Amino acid sequence: MDGGSRAMIKSLRGRLFISLTTVVVLTGLVGGVFAHRWAFDEAIETQDSVLIQIAGLVQSGGLTGTQDLHGVDEDAEVWLMELGKTPQGTPEERQLWRLQDGMRDATRKGRPVRVVLRTRSDGSRFAVAQSTGVRDEIAGDMAFRTVLPIAALIPCLMLVIAFVIARSLRPMVRLADELDARPADDMTALPLHDLPSELNPFVSSINGLLRRVHDMMEQQRRFIADAAHELRTPLTALSLQAENLDQVDLPPAARERLAVLRQGMRRSKHLLEQLLALARHDATPSDRAQWEVVELDRTARGVIADLLREAIRRGVDLGFARAEPVPVRGEPVMLSAMIRNLIDNALRFVPEGGRIDVAIYQDGATCMLQIEDTGPGVSADEIDRIFEPFFRGQRPEGEGVGLGLAIVKRIVDRLGGSIEAVNMTEAGRTGLRVVVKLPAATV
Ligand SMILES: Nc1ncnc2c1ncn2[C@@H]1O[C@H](COP(=O)(O)OP(=O)(O)O)[C@@H](O)[C@H]1O
Ligand SMILES: [Mg+2]
Predict the structure, then answer these.
(1) Does 71 score more than 70 pLDDT?
(2) Which domain holds residue 103?
(3) End of a domain among 141, 161, 183?
């Protein structure tokens, strides 16, 4: 999958994650605040009713003296304050005495307290007081314990959301990976099963597009093949006529022109053969099942044997620098066409006394084919274009039409490999190095 589509899915994932977690966090916050308040109020009320119960106990005579109360719960800071039958004692106690019976807020020794005031039947009054600070602390503790599970749940929910989003988007990522891993000419439809139904229209559209591209490529391929084929017949007839003319007694000037004519015809024939080859190696993946395992070094040996005589004629040293048996999957014809085109180019550009080194070896799961020559190489501004059909550069040699490397590129693509041409500039020498990488066959 390329960076663009990955980033798109990532941002979709990011957007989902951010919006869902925002909702969760906000819900948690609002819920937490309310739960905290309710629990706090509830705890205060509970403490109030405890104070009232203690006051009831004191009034019924079941509980007397401050000691008793401290014995109940010292931490809770609950005091019984005897106020007498008339206002007396500290100003605070006198002030308390004047309040009516019931639940009140007051101060004790300068600190705020919650008190329950009662009057006994003999007219004496008392107050059961509890420090407001302690009460708030206890209520705060209880409220905090109510909120704790909510707070703990939020990170858990965020994890679950991230997991669910990743899981839901996985089919999309898988689909993109599957498309990326395909050879350029693989136009088979994407499978619709195992996919969430939301992706179905999307996949159907891609499949429709693949079908249309396939049809278009097929049409184009057939047109080239048909055109080349149609042209071959009249050209053969013309060649025959030219051959016949050669037998006839001709003045030297006419014979000279005839030679030019025949050379032009040879070129045209070569162009047609190359066009046919190009069309043949274009987008026909259906025959992949019939490919056989071929030892590439053996194929190369055959091609070199064929071209050796031409190499000797040109005074070029053509041979192997390294030849290891490497199996690749393909048709022998297309593999030898590939090697022949590459060596043929090198032969045309290498000057007399030069050399062409072919190397074939295995590098892990890759089959390496390397062809190095001592020719002039390709100028820097042309090297990116030499695989384009009909590109011949500024120094074309021989009778080529600029289709050789385009054919080679298509064969390499079809085999699922890659090709690269680099100029060799080490130690003042020149030359072109073409490196073909093919997936090695497992036998
Ligand atoms: N070994 C080489 N050394 C230098 N230039 C090369 C070599 N191979 C290819 N080229 C350049 O790439 C061009 C395209 O090659 P190719 O497609 O085989 O076409 P053709 O051989 O018909 O000219 C050639 O015209 C030439 O400019
Ligand atoms: Mg060529």
Answers:
(1) no
(2) 3-141
(3) 141
Q: What is the CATH number of the domain that holds 207?
A: 1.10.287.130
Spacing, Cα 397 to ligand 1 middle (Å): 8
Q: Which residue has the tokens 């106690």?
A: 93
Looking at the CA of 392, name the nearest ligand.
Answer: 1
Residues 331 and 264 in one domain: no
Per-residue pLDDT reduced to its tens digit, 158-183: 999 999 999 988 888 888 888 888 87
Query: Ligand 1 centre from 367 Cα, in Å?
Result: 23
Distance 184 CA to ligand 2 centre (A): 23
Instruction: Indicate if 256 and 136 belong to the same structural domain.
Output: no
Q: Residue 406 falls within a domain, yes or no?
A: yes
pLDDT score of 194: 77
Yes or no: say if 96 and 88 are a contact pair by the CB < 8 Å rule: no
Which of 7 and 244 is assigned the larger pLDDT? 244
Q: Using CA atoms, how far apart are residues 126 and 83, in angstroms rounded to an integer?
A: 5
Going from the Cα of 321 to the center of ligand 2, the distance in angstroms, rounded, reads 22
The arithmetic mean of pLDDT across residues 392-399, rounded, is: 76
- Specify the residue with its C-alpha closest to ligand 1, atom 4: 377
Would you give the DSSP letter of residue 290? G
Residue nearest to atom 3 of ligand 1 (CA): 377
- On the question of pLDDT at 287 being above 80, the answer is no
CATH of the domain at 304: 3.30.565.10
In a domain, 149, yes or no: no
Lowest mean pLDDT: which of 30-34, 379-383, 397-401? 397-401
432 and 347 housed in the same domain: yes
Ligand 1 pocket test target in 405, 412, 419, 425 with most atoms within 8 Å of CB: 405
Where does ligand 1 bind, in terms of residues with CB under 6 Å? 345-346, 349, 373, 375-378, 386, 391-393, 396, 400-406, 432
In terms of domains, do 434 and 296 share one? yes
Number of domains the chain is built from = 3
Which residues are CB-neighbours of 362 under 8 A, at least 6 positions away? 324, 326, 368, 440
C-alpha angle 257/262/266, rounded to 5°? 150
**For residue range 291-330, what is the model confidence (pLDDT) as tens digits?**
899 999 999 999 999 999 999 999 999 999 999 999 999 9
Query: Which of 339, 357, 378 to mutate to test ligand 1, by most ligand atoms within 8 A of the CB atom?
Result: 378
Instruction: Indicate whether 360 belongs to any domain.
Output: yes
* Residue bearing the CA closest to ligand 1, atom 13: 392
| Spatial distance between the Cα atoms of 103 and 48, rounded to a whole number of angstroms | 8
Question: Mean pLDDT score of the chain, rounded to an integer?
Answer: 88
Ligand 2 centre from 270 Cα, in Å? 11
Cβ contacts of 198-205, under 8 Å, gap ≥ 24: 199/171, 199/172, 199/175, 203/175
Same domain, 342 and 309: yes
More confident residue, 253 or 274: 253
391 CB-near residues (< 8 Å, 6+ apart):
382, 385, 402, 405, 406
Domain assignment present for 188: no
Which residue, of 75, 107, 141, is where some domain finishes? 141
Q: Is there a single domain that holds both residue 21 and residue 133?
A: yes
pLDDT score recorded for residue 286: 55
